[in-house]
Amino acid sequence: MKKLRLLAVLTAFFTASCFCFAQNWKADHVFLIGLDGWGAYSVEKAEMPNVKSLMDAGCYTLKKRSVLPSSSAVNWASMFMGAGPELHGYTEWGSKTPELPSRVLNEHNIFPTVFSELRKAAPDAEMGVLYEWDGIKYLVDTLALNYYAQAPDYNQYPTALCEMACKYITEKKPVLTAICFDNPDHVGHADGHDTPAYYAKLKELDGYVGRILDAVKAAGIYDNSIIIVTADHGGINKGHGGKTMQEMETPFIIAGKNVKKGGAFEESMMQFDCASTVASIFGLEQPQVWIGRPMTQVFK
């Protein structure tokens, strides 16, 4: 009998501890949707009703700046790692390993990511990263994840990533998920930025965002979720990597539980502030080596 009482007390203490820990979170689920090559210049003209409904429901900026160069791997790394290339060491569009020695390495021998930081704080949290571009997996610390997967070639299976994401969300109800589309970047390279083809691709991608939101609702977790939609870089003509605002400025849109219906915010934001903002949702103490700042003004 004494053993049963002790077990009951320990169980109650553990449950209470978990509850108190979760109470430090602004939401129990975060979904970060990334659109590669989505320049902020395009938002006003784009037909993206699902994205714009999130803008209306939450907060956003169209002036988040990339790090330099304004290209893929270096900016996805900064988005997840809370620092710039001078510290995390990924400096090129296709970096798979750091060209500069990372200033700090975590227990998985990679620069600390928001995924590894959440894993330490919440060992049982379900986390996943789904993507079309293979380069993403080198930048997220896959050892910290429960699940990561690349979608089949979107030229043959354009809806594959969306379908994978919806399945994962409804089955696992993850705590933190990144869903990284490889467009409109490819259309930007092939047809050009700010072209009819580019806007047609944005309309298509908005449809996938809508389906992902529906999956979150179907999973029964929408009211306890925060949705972020953002990008690694923009573009100009048929390229990117340079120092124009068309290449460097990208949207950052956030909506959901405990997010203000505040519209556009004017405070400056950099790519590495994304990781800090996600970390703040989960009440994480960010690593000293991170230089990102959470966008605390967007929260209630």
UniProtKB/TrEMBL annotation:
<dbReference type="InterPro" id="IPR017850">
    <property type="entry name" value="Alkaline_phosphatase_core_sf"/>
</dbReference>
<dbReference type="GO" id="GO:0016787">
    <property type="term" value="F:hydrolase activity"/>
</dbReference>
<feature type="signal peptide">
    <location>
        <begin position="1"/>
        <end position="22"/>
    </location>
</feature>
<dbReference type="Pfam" id="PF01663">
    <property type="entry name" value="Phosphodiest"/>
</dbReference>
<dbReference type="InterPro" id="IPR002591">
    <property type="entry name" value="Phosphodiest/P_Trfase"/>
</dbReference>
<keyword id="KW-0732">Signal</keyword>
<protein>
    <submittedName>
        <fullName>Alkaline phosphatase</fullName>
    </submittedName>
</protein>
